[in-house]
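Subject: for your reference before the review

Hello V.,

The reviewers asked for a structural picture of the protein, and I figured it would be easier to keep everything in one thread rather than splitting it across files. Below is the amino acid sequence we used in the manuscript, unchanged from the supplementary table.
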Amino acid sequence: MQRQLRQRRPARPRRRHLLIDERREAKRGGLPQRNLSAALFRLEASSGPDEVMGIVHALLNWLKAPEQASLRHAFAVWLGRIFLPRRLPGIAFEPLSSRRLPISNSWKS
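And here is what came back from the structure prediction:
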């Protein structure tokens, strides 16, 4: 029994996607100020601890309402487990809620 080979068509996405270059958008400017996605884009594109601290303080101010507790916690986890260790490799971090953000000369952009 021979199998008939189907003629393959070029792969085409079945769903629509939007690809965003975070760093380019953040560096280009014009992102909304009170927008979580825009703030995260600015964090990813930040070049030093002073810039990061300004963005983090703004985010914490926006997320201080009790109904934002879950989002605030998710941001703290991402910041402490992903963002800071990638920017400051080799430094062990305590849980974010129990310490201040480290300032270091070993900052990586």
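For the response letter, the relevant points are probably these. Residues 26-87 form one domain. Confidence is low (pLDDT under 50) at residues 98-105.

Happy to draft the paragraph if you're swamped.

O.
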